[in-house]
Amino acid sequence: MSSSPVSRFDPVLAAARWARPRIAFPPWGSGLGLARTVLALGTLGTLLATPPQVLLSPLAGGIVPPVCVGITRASVWCAAPGGPEGARWLSVVVLAVTASGWRPRLTAIPHWWVSWSLFASISILDGGDQITAVLTLLLIPVALTDRRRWHWQRPDDIASGPLSRLVAVIALVLIQVQVAGVYLQAGISKLGVPDWVNGTALFYFFRSVILGAPPWLSPVTSAITGSPFGVSILTWGAIALEIALGLALLLPGGSRRVLLAAGLAFHDAIALSMGLISFDFAMSASLLLYLLPIGHQITAPRWLGGAHRLLTARTAAPAGLPRGSAAEAVPDPPASESVAVILPRGPDSCGQV
Predict the structure, then answer these.
(1) Is 182 contained in some domain?
(2) 353 with 177: CB under 8 angstroms?
(3) Which of 30, 199, 228, 277 gives a 20 to 30 Å CA spacing to 67?
(4) Please, are residues 123 and 65 in contact by the beta-carbon 8 Å criterion?
(5) Tens digit of each residue's pLDDT (9 = 90 or more) over 325-346
Protein backbone atom coordinates (compact mmCIF):
# COMPACT_ATOMS: atom_id res chain seq x y z
CA MET A 1 0.00 0.00 0.00
CA SER A 2 1.22 3.48 -0.75
CA SER A 3 1.23 5.80 2.21
CA SER A 4 -0.24 9.26 1.84
CA PRO A 5 2.31 12.10 1.79
CA VAL A 6 2.90 13.78 5.10
CA SER A 7 1.77 17.39 5.03
CA ARG A 8 4.52 19.80 5.90
CA PHE A 9 4.22 23.17 7.55
CA ASP A 10 4.85 25.93 5.04
CA PRO A 11 5.84 29.12 6.94
CA VAL A 12 5.40 31.30 3.85
CA LEU A 13 1.86 30.01 3.26
CA ALA A 14 1.03 30.39 6.95
CA ALA A 15 2.32 33.97 6.96
CA ALA A 16 0.29 34.76 3.84
CA ARG A 17 -2.87 33.37 5.43
CA TRP A 18 -2.23 35.41 8.58
CA ALA A 19 -1.54 38.63 6.68
CA ARG A 20 -4.31 38.48 4.08
CA PRO A 21 -7.27 39.50 6.29
CA ARG A 22 -5.15 42.05 8.14
CA ILE A 23 -4.16 44.00 5.03
CA ALA A 24 -7.63 43.86 3.50
CA PHE A 25 -8.31 47.35 4.85
CA PRO A 26 -6.05 50.30 5.81
CA PRO A 27 -4.54 49.91 9.31
CA TRP A 28 -4.26 53.65 9.94
CA GLY A 29 -7.34 54.50 11.97
CA SER A 30 -8.21 57.46 14.14
CA GLY A 31 -7.66 55.18 17.14
CA LEU A 32 -4.00 55.10 16.13
CA GLY A 33 -4.10 58.88 15.83
CA LEU A 34 -5.54 59.23 19.32
CA ALA A 35 -2.75 57.09 20.75
CA ARG A 36 -0.08 59.24 19.05
CA THR A 37 -1.74 62.38 20.38
CA VAL A 38 -1.87 61.01 23.94
CA LEU A 39 1.82 60.05 23.75
CA ALA A 40 2.77 63.52 22.56
CA LEU A 41 0.63 65.27 25.17
CA GLY A 42 2.25 63.27 27.98
CA THR A 43 5.75 64.43 27.03
CA LEU A 44 4.49 67.92 26.25
CA GLY A 45 2.99 68.23 29.73
CA THR A 46 6.27 67.16 31.31
CA LEU A 47 8.21 69.83 29.42
CA LEU A 48 5.70 72.60 30.07
CA ALA A 49 5.30 71.83 33.77
CA THR A 50 8.96 71.18 34.63
CA PRO A 51 11.74 73.76 34.24
CA PRO A 52 14.94 72.57 32.50
CA GLN A 53 16.99 73.08 35.67
CA VAL A 54 14.80 70.48 37.38
CA LEU A 55 14.82 68.05 34.46
CA LEU A 56 18.60 68.38 34.30
CA SER A 57 19.30 68.08 38.02
CA PRO A 58 22.94 67.19 38.83
CA LEU A 59 23.81 63.50 38.88
CA ALA A 60 25.94 61.66 41.44
CA GLY A 61 29.46 63.05 41.54
CA GLY A 62 28.29 66.53 40.61
CA ILE A 63 27.89 65.74 36.88
CA VAL A 64 25.44 68.15 35.28
CA PRO A 65 23.36 66.70 32.42
CA PRO A 66 22.97 66.51 29.55
CA VAL A 67 26.01 64.29 29.15
CA CYS A 68 26.77 64.65 25.45
CA VAL A 69 28.97 61.60 24.85
CA GLY A 70 28.63 58.98 22.13
CA ILE A 71 25.14 58.52 20.74
CA THR A 72 23.63 61.03 23.18
CA ARG A 73 25.31 63.79 21.17
CA ALA A 74 22.37 63.38 18.80
CA SER A 75 19.93 64.28 21.60
CA VAL A 76 17.95 67.46 21.13
CA TRP A 77 19.30 68.55 24.52
CA CYS A 78 22.83 68.44 23.08
CA ALA A 79 22.20 69.49 19.48
CA ALA A 80 19.62 72.27 19.73
CA PRO A 81 20.79 75.89 19.71
CA GLY A 82 20.02 78.00 22.76
CA GLY A 83 20.99 75.44 25.38
CA PRO A 84 18.38 73.71 27.58
CA GLU A 85 15.72 76.37 27.00
CA GLY A 86 16.17 76.11 23.23
CA ALA A 87 15.89 72.31 23.42
CA ARG A 88 12.82 72.56 25.60
CA TRP A 89 10.90 74.89 23.29
CA LEU A 90 11.97 73.08 20.12
CA SER A 91 10.62 69.90 21.71
CA VAL A 92 7.39 71.68 22.67
CA VAL A 93 6.82 72.77 19.07
CA VAL A 94 7.45 69.27 17.70
CA LEU A 95 5.15 67.69 20.27
CA ALA A 96 2.37 70.23 19.72
CA VAL A 97 2.41 69.62 15.96
CA THR A 98 2.46 65.86 16.51
CA ALA A 99 -0.45 66.03 18.98
CA SER A 100 -2.51 67.99 16.44
CA GLY A 101 -2.37 65.02 14.08
CA TRP A 102 -0.87 66.90 11.13
CA ARG A 103 1.07 64.85 8.56
CA PRO A 104 2.05 61.69 10.47
CA ARG A 105 4.70 60.92 7.84
CA LEU A 106 6.51 64.17 8.64
CA THR A 107 6.16 64.11 12.43
CA ALA A 108 6.99 60.44 13.10
CA ILE A 109 10.77 60.71 13.29
CA PRO A 110 10.87 64.12 15.06
CA HIS A 111 8.41 62.76 17.64
CA TRP A 112 10.67 59.80 18.35
CA TRP A 113 13.75 62.06 18.44
CA VAL A 114 12.22 64.32 21.07
CA SER A 115 10.95 61.37 23.14
CA TRP A 116 14.26 59.50 22.99
CA SER A 117 16.20 62.68 23.77
CA LEU A 118 14.18 63.26 26.93
CA PHE A 119 14.75 59.69 28.09
CA ALA A 120 18.46 59.71 27.20
CA SER A 121 19.40 63.13 28.54
CA ILE A 122 17.43 64.22 31.59
CA SER A 123 18.03 63.01 35.13
CA ILE A 124 14.41 63.09 36.41
CA LEU A 125 12.71 60.11 34.75
CA ASP A 126 9.81 57.76 35.25
CA GLY A 127 8.82 54.59 33.46
CA GLY A 128 6.51 56.50 31.13
CA ASP A 129 9.44 58.27 29.44
CA GLN A 130 11.03 54.95 28.50
CA ILE A 131 7.74 53.48 27.27
CA THR A 132 7.11 56.59 25.15
CA ALA A 133 10.58 56.39 23.61
CA VAL A 134 10.04 52.72 22.68
CA LEU A 135 6.54 53.21 21.31
CA THR A 136 7.45 56.23 19.19
CA LEU A 137 10.32 54.21 17.69
CA LEU A 138 8.03 51.28 16.83
CA LEU A 139 5.46 53.70 15.41
CA ILE A 140 7.90 55.11 12.83
CA PRO A 141 7.13 52.51 10.11
CA VAL A 142 3.42 52.88 10.85
CA ALA A 143 3.46 56.65 10.43
CA LEU A 144 5.85 56.68 7.46
CA THR A 145 3.36 54.56 5.50
CA ASP A 146 0.42 56.77 6.58
CA ARG A 147 -0.53 59.11 3.72
CA ARG A 148 -3.23 61.02 5.56
CA ARG A 149 -2.96 64.78 6.03
CA TRP A 150 -4.39 64.45 9.55
CA HIS A 151 -4.26 61.28 11.62
CA TRP A 152 -7.91 61.82 12.56
CA GLN A 153 -9.05 61.29 8.97
CA ARG A 154 -10.47 58.13 7.48
CA PRO A 155 -7.75 56.56 5.30
CA ASP A 156 -8.17 56.21 1.56
CA ASP A 157 -8.68 52.60 0.51
CA ILE A 158 -6.96 53.13 -2.84
CA ALA A 159 -4.00 55.29 -1.80
CA SER A 160 -2.23 52.53 0.11
CA GLY A 161 -0.83 49.34 -1.36
CA PRO A 162 -0.54 45.90 0.27
CA LEU A 163 3.18 46.35 1.08
CA SER A 164 2.68 49.56 3.06
CA ARG A 165 -0.27 48.00 4.87
CA LEU A 166 1.78 44.93 5.73
CA VAL A 167 4.66 47.04 7.09
CA ALA A 168 2.26 49.01 9.28
CA VAL A 169 0.43 45.90 10.52
CA ILE A 170 3.66 44.14 11.47
CA ALA A 171 4.83 47.18 13.43
CA LEU A 172 1.48 47.46 15.22
CA VAL A 173 1.53 43.76 16.11
CA LEU A 174 5.05 44.18 17.53
CA ILE A 175 3.70 47.01 19.68
CA GLN A 176 0.86 44.78 20.88
CA VAL A 177 3.32 42.03 21.84
CA GLN A 178 5.56 44.59 23.57
CA VAL A 179 2.70 45.99 25.66
CA ALA A 180 1.46 42.48 26.52
CA GLY A 181 4.95 41.67 27.80
CA VAL A 182 5.03 44.82 29.93
CA TYR A 183 1.80 43.90 31.71
CA LEU A 184 2.64 40.22 32.10
CA GLN A 185 6.03 41.07 33.59
CA ALA A 186 4.49 43.66 35.91
CA GLY A 187 1.86 41.24 37.19
CA ILE A 188 3.95 38.08 37.48
CA SER A 189 6.93 39.83 39.09
CA LYS A 190 4.69 40.97 41.96
CA LEU A 191 4.03 37.34 42.83
CA GLY A 192 7.62 37.13 44.06
CA VAL A 193 7.27 40.05 46.50
CA PRO A 194 5.90 39.11 49.96
CA ASP A 195 3.95 42.36 50.45
CA TRP A 196 2.10 41.83 47.18
CA VAL A 197 1.45 38.16 47.86
CA ASN A 198 0.05 38.76 51.35
CA GLY A 199 -2.11 41.64 50.08
CA THR A 200 -0.58 44.53 52.03
CA ALA A 201 1.60 46.31 49.43
CA LEU A 202 -0.78 49.20 48.79
CA PHE A 203 -0.99 49.90 52.52
CA TYR A 204 2.63 51.02 52.33
CA PHE A 205 2.42 52.67 48.91
CA PHE A 206 -0.39 54.99 49.91
CA ARG A 207 1.53 56.03 53.03
CA SER A 208 4.83 56.61 51.21
CA VAL A 209 6.34 60.08 51.47
CA ILE A 210 7.25 59.97 47.76
CA LEU A 211 4.36 58.04 46.15
CA GLY A 212 1.66 58.43 48.78
CA ALA A 213 -1.77 59.89 48.14
CA PRO A 214 -2.18 63.70 48.23
CA PRO A 215 -3.54 65.24 51.45
CA TRP A 216 -7.04 65.74 50.06
CA LEU A 217 -7.28 62.05 49.10
CA SER A 218 -5.34 60.43 51.95
CA PRO A 219 -8.35 60.15 54.30
CA VAL A 220 -10.11 57.98 51.71
CA THR A 221 -7.08 55.84 50.81
CA SER A 222 -6.15 55.45 54.48
CA ALA A 223 -9.65 54.28 55.37
CA ILE A 224 -9.73 51.74 52.53
CA THR A 225 -6.21 50.38 52.97
CA GLY A 226 -6.59 50.41 56.76
CA SER A 227 -9.14 47.63 56.36
CA PRO A 228 -7.76 44.11 55.79
CA PHE A 229 -10.48 43.44 53.24
CA GLY A 230 -10.01 46.75 51.41
CA VAL A 231 -6.23 46.60 51.11
CA SER A 232 -6.33 42.95 50.02
CA ILE A 233 -8.89 43.61 47.29
CA LEU A 234 -6.91 46.58 45.94
CA THR A 235 -3.55 44.81 46.08
CA TRP A 236 -4.61 41.49 44.58
CA GLY A 237 -6.95 43.22 42.16
CA ALA A 238 -4.02 45.17 40.70
CA ILE A 239 -2.09 41.93 40.14
CA ALA A 240 -5.09 40.20 38.57
CA LEU A 241 -5.78 43.13 36.23
CA GLU A 242 -2.17 43.36 35.06
CA ILE A 243 -2.02 39.64 34.30
CA ALA A 244 -5.40 39.80 32.53
CA LEU A 245 -4.16 42.73 30.43
CA GLY A 246 -1.05 40.75 29.56
CA LEU A 247 -3.21 37.89 28.27
CA ALA A 248 -5.65 40.12 26.38
CA LEU A 249 -4.23 39.14 22.97
CA LEU A 250 -5.74 35.70 23.51
CA LEU A 251 -9.21 37.03 24.33
CA PRO A 252 -12.12 37.99 22.03
CA GLY A 253 -12.96 41.56 21.10
CA GLY A 254 -15.65 42.05 23.74
CA SER A 255 -13.28 41.10 26.56
CA ARG A 256 -10.65 43.43 25.15
CA ARG A 257 -13.05 46.37 25.28
CA VAL A 258 -13.81 45.65 28.93
CA LEU A 259 -10.11 45.39 29.72
CA LEU A 260 -9.41 48.62 27.83
CA ALA A 261 -11.88 50.52 29.99
CA ALA A 262 -10.56 48.85 33.16
CA GLY A 263 -6.93 49.55 32.21
CA LEU A 264 -7.58 53.22 31.45
CA ALA A 265 -9.42 53.64 34.76
CA PHE A 266 -6.59 51.80 36.56
CA HIS A 267 -3.90 54.16 35.28
CA ASP A 268 -6.07 57.22 35.86
CA ALA A 269 -6.47 56.10 39.47
CA ILE A 270 -2.69 55.71 39.82
CA ALA A 271 -2.19 59.21 38.42
CA LEU A 272 -4.81 60.65 40.76
CA SER A 273 -3.52 58.94 43.90
CA MET A 274 0.24 58.86 43.26
CA GLY A 275 0.80 61.79 40.93
CA LEU A 276 2.29 59.75 38.05
CA ILE A 277 0.70 61.88 35.33
CA SER A 278 3.14 61.31 32.46
CA PHE A 279 3.12 57.58 33.21
CA ASP A 280 -0.67 57.65 32.90
CA PHE A 281 -0.44 59.24 29.44
CA ALA A 282 2.17 56.72 28.27
CA MET A 283 0.25 53.68 29.49
CA SER A 284 -3.09 54.99 28.23
CA ALA A 285 -1.60 55.36 24.75
CA SER A 286 -0.12 51.87 25.10
CA LEU A 287 -3.54 50.45 25.90
CA LEU A 288 -5.14 52.18 22.90
CA LEU A 289 -2.51 50.71 20.58
CA TYR A 290 -2.80 47.34 22.27
CA LEU A 291 -6.51 46.77 22.71
CA LEU A 292 -8.20 48.79 19.97
CA PRO A 293 -8.54 46.73 16.76
CA ILE A 294 -5.97 47.64 14.13
CA GLY A 295 -7.51 50.22 11.80
CA HIS A 296 -10.19 51.18 14.33
CA GLN A 297 -12.06 54.41 13.62
CA ILE A 298 -13.35 56.31 16.62
CA THR A 299 -16.97 57.41 16.34
CA ALA A 300 -18.29 60.67 17.69
CA PRO A 301 -21.52 61.12 19.69
CA ARG A 302 -24.66 61.94 17.71
CA TRP A 303 -24.85 65.52 18.98
CA LEU A 304 -21.24 66.18 17.98
CA GLY A 305 -21.82 64.80 14.51
CA GLY A 306 -24.87 67.04 14.09
CA ALA A 307 -22.91 70.10 15.24
CA HIS A 308 -20.11 69.27 12.80
CA ARG A 309 -22.55 68.99 9.88
CA LEU A 310 -24.28 72.23 10.83
CA LEU A 311 -20.97 74.07 11.08
CA THR A 312 -19.90 72.69 7.70
CA ALA A 313 -23.18 73.77 6.12
CA ARG A 314 -22.87 77.29 7.53
CA THR A 315 -19.34 77.63 6.27
CA ALA A 316 -20.33 76.47 2.80
CA ALA A 317 -23.46 78.65 2.53
CA PRO A 318 -23.73 80.78 -0.67
CA ALA A 319 -22.61 84.40 -0.35
CA GLY A 320 -26.09 85.80 -0.96
CA LEU A 321 -27.82 83.54 1.54
CA PRO A 322 -28.32 85.06 5.01
CA ARG A 323 -26.87 83.06 7.86
CA GLY A 324 -29.45 81.04 9.77
CA SER A 325 -32.07 81.19 7.00
CA ALA A 326 -34.48 78.34 6.45
CA ALA A 327 -32.76 77.35 3.22
CA GLU A 328 -29.46 77.06 5.06
CA ALA A 329 -30.69 75.03 8.01
CA VAL A 330 -29.59 71.42 8.24
CA PRO A 331 -32.22 69.01 9.58
CA ASP A 332 -31.27 66.83 12.51
CA PRO A 333 -31.02 63.11 11.80
CA PRO A 334 -33.67 60.79 13.23
CA ALA A 335 -33.25 59.99 16.91
CA SER A 336 -32.42 56.38 16.10
CA GLU A 337 -29.39 57.29 14.01
CA SER A 338 -25.87 57.48 15.41
CA VAL A 339 -23.91 60.09 13.50
CA ALA A 340 -20.20 59.37 13.16
CA VAL A 341 -17.71 61.99 12.11
CA ILE A 342 -15.30 59.14 11.34
CA LEU A 343 -16.85 55.89 10.22
CA PRO A 344 -15.63 52.51 11.47
CA ARG A 345 -13.83 50.31 8.99
CA GLY A 346 -12.95 46.67 8.97
CA PRO A 347 -13.97 43.87 11.29
CA ASP A 348 -12.69 43.89 14.84
CA SER A 349 -11.28 40.42 14.36
CA CYS A 350 -8.64 41.75 11.99
CA GLY A 351 -7.00 43.51 14.91
CA GLN A 352 -6.29 40.23 16.68
CA VAL A 353 -2.91 38.51 16.66
Answers:
(1) no
(2) yes
(3) 277
(4) yes
(5) 443 443 444 443 333 333 333 4
